[in-house]
Design brief:
Blueprint lengths: L1 H72 L4 H11 L8 H17 L2
Length: 115
């Protein structure tokens, strides 16, 4: 009879242990699902930012090319063309790096919030 009680106790212990493992598994699966969701949002935001950065780089390159063509065709207005380019892009060409960082952060936030 004592052996049956020992086996019942052992079964109960194993059932309790199994219950703890199931709870841990559920907790981990929930955490994994949350991390996957965060990853997906982060990946999408990174794609948007990279796309905008590449678009900006090409646009800026085109503006530089156009400015150089203007200067080549009319060198006497060199300062006017350069100032025009600098004024148009002053938000990213500021001498104070903190101002540039803040402006880039604002742009990134706008990109992330746009859907």
């Amino acid at each position: 009879m004592e052996e049956i009680e020992l086996l019942k106790n052992k079964i109960k212990e194993l059932e309790d242990e199994l219950s703890v493992f199931k709870t841990k598994e559920d907790y981990l699966n929930t955490g994994i699902d949350k991390v996957k969701g965060i990853y997906e949002v982060t990946r999408q935001n990174a794609e948007k930012i990279i796309f905008k950065a590449v678009s900006f780089a090409y646009s800026f390159k085109e503006e530089l090319t156009l400015t150089l063509k203007k200067i080549k065709s009319n060198p006497s207005n060199y300062e006017e063309y350069v100032n025009e380019l600098l004024n148009k892009n002053s938000h990213l060409l500021d001498e104070n790096i903190d101002i540039v960082k803040n402006k880039i952060q604002e742009i990134v936030i706008k990109i992330i919030n746009s859907k």
